[in-house]
Specification:
This protein is mostly helical. Helix content is 71%, strand content 0%. It contains 4 helices and no strands.
């Protein structure tokens, strides 16, 4: 909805500038020089503002898209297969009792 307002405002300002310039050209013989100058001044600034709005619109769209994309990525649950750190987790530590049992021989050998 906001992008429609951007596009509509920029387009209307460009149409306004074209209309004011056309009106100034049509009334050159009937209007005073000051009136013609004011019409052309308004047409120029409405053109500049319309072009600036239409040039800023893609930048605003890209910033909003990046902000939404980064926001969604930050809110996603952690996927264990996605990160390298989670797939190469260190092995669990053995307790002291397990280490001692590993060093003892598991089967008794009989000497004859």
């Amino acid at each position: 909805m906001r992008m429609g307002w951007f596009l509509g405002s920029g387009g209307m300002l460009l149409l306004l500038s074209a209309g004011l310039e056309f009106f100034a050209r049509q009334t050159v013989e009937q209007a005073s020089f000051a009136t013609i100058l004011e019409l052309l001044y308004l047409a120029f600034w409405s053109y500049v503002l319309g072009v600036v709005i239409l040039l800023l619109m893609p930048i605003v769209v890209c910033v909003m898209w990046l902000r939404d994309r980064l926001g969604h990525r930050a809110m996603e649950p952690d996927d264990p297969g996605r990160s390298v750190e989670r797939t190469t987790a260190p092995a669990p530590q053995q307790s002291l009792k397990d280490r001692v049992e590993d060093k003892e021989p598991s089967s008794l050998t009989h000497v004859a």
